[in-house]
Amino acid sequence: MIKAVIVDDEELGRSVLSNLLRKYCPEITVVGSAGSLREAKKVIEEINPSLVFLDIEMPGGWGFELLEKINNISFSVIFTTAYDQYAVKAFKYSAVDYLLKPINIEELISAVKKATVQDPKKNMESVQHLVESYHNSGVSKSSNKVALPTHGGLVFIDLADIIHCEADGKYTWCCLADGTKLHSTRSLKEFEEQLEQSGFCRVHHAHLISLQHIKSYAKGEGGQVTMSNGDEITVSKRKKEDFLKRLNKI
Question: Are 86 and 109 found together in one domain?
Answer without folding.
Answer: yes
